[in-house]
Task: inverse folding
């Protein structure tokens, strides 16, 4: 296969060039291409209707500010079409700009007031719209802005909060799995419901992947229907719990349900220490602790994952780091019990 080089832009002092596709409906293809680019030290935006080929003609839309790097991406949601999920975009694209002062700002469209994401020290920026779980609001990876600040890779996410609250910019987080100092970065979605962040370091490429965000997406719902004069016979299915449930109340309205390995093991006590820490004491000695084996559910059936688990002060104790429990029981205005579950 031969690749033919094409000129997509010419101008004075051209810099980085990023492209995003607008697709307001999953029933049709993209309707317009947007590009954010640096020309003569300024960040600019242009569009093209040539969505079915490599565009050579771009129509200038607007100019922003002096910049050294720029990124562009649409917010969007997923909708099932047949046996696959398709992304449709919402509104105007978001444009992230690294100003010559090292400040990182972002705005949606031309007229939006820029939001300052980072005050200084930024050299590169990239963006990607992460996967949004269609069943659980707290599994929204959001619109992810990745950037290099003082040589290290960080990100901020514009994600949906509890269903009755709008999306907000979450705090800055470092991607400690990637090396520093980094020279360049990029962000991408995989086809197995993950997001990847890649960076260049001393001529080598390193990447980090998120966990899969596929509940309600990768597994298609099953439906049995019957028409007129059709008989459907169903095979009886017997369900068995894989653990024996013990429910106690300890600390601040925290219920616990757990079996660890054997039927006679259970929690003796459990309480939350602030919104992200749970201390629990088990009846018997524990080994091989794994954070992925535990989750916390509230009475709205919202799931809060466990990101870390360590041994407590005694061989019978464990300390778990969980998602922010301040968002639990939204329909009950924060009241109601929490359930700590063991999945192993």
Result:
């Amino acid at each position: 296969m031969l690749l033919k080089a094409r000129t997509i832009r010419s101008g004075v002092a051209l810099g980085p060039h990023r492209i995003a596709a607008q697709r307001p409906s999953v029933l049709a293809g993209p309707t317009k291409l947007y590009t954010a680019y640096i020309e003569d030290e300024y960040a600019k935006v242009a569009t093209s209707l040539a969505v079915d080929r490599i565009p050579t003609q771009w129509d200038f839309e607007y100019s922003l500010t002096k910049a050294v790097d720029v990124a562009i991406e649409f917010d969007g949601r997923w909708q099932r079409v047949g046996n696959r999920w398709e992304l449709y975009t919402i509104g105007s694209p978001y444009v992230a700009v690294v100003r010559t002062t090292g400040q990182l700002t972002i705005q949606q469209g031309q007229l939006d007031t820029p939001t300052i994401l980072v005050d200084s020290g930024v050299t590169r920026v990239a963006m990607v719209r992460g996967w949004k779980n269609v069943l659980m609001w707290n599994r929204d990876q959001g619109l992810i802005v990745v950037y290099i600040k003082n040589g290290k890779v960080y990100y901020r996410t514009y994600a949906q909060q509890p269903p009755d609250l709008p999306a907000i910019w979450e705090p800055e987080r470092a991607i400690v799995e990637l090396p520093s100092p980094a020279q360049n970065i990029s962000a991408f979605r995989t086809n197995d419901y993950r997001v990847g962040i890649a960076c260049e370091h001393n001529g080598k490429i390193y990447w980090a992947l998120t966990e899969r965000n596929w509940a309600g997406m990768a597994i298609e719902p099953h439906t049995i229907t019957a028409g007129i004069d059709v008989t459907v016979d169903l095979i009886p299915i017997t369900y068995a719990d894989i653990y024996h449930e013990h429910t106690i109340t300890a600390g601040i309205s925290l219920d616990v349900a757990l079996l660890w390995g054997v039927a006679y093991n259970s929690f003796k006590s459990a309480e939350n220490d602030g919104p992200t820490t749970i201390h629990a004491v088990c009846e018997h000695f524990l080994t091989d602790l794994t954070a992925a084996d535990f989750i916390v559910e509230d009475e709205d059936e919202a799931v809060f994952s466990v990101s870390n688990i360590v041994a407590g002060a005694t061989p019978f104790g464990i300390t778990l780091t969980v998602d922010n429990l301040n968002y639990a029981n939204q329909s009950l205005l924060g009241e109601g019990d929490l359930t700590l579950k063991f999945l192993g």
Observations:
- Residues 240-263 have pLDDT under 50 and may be disordered.
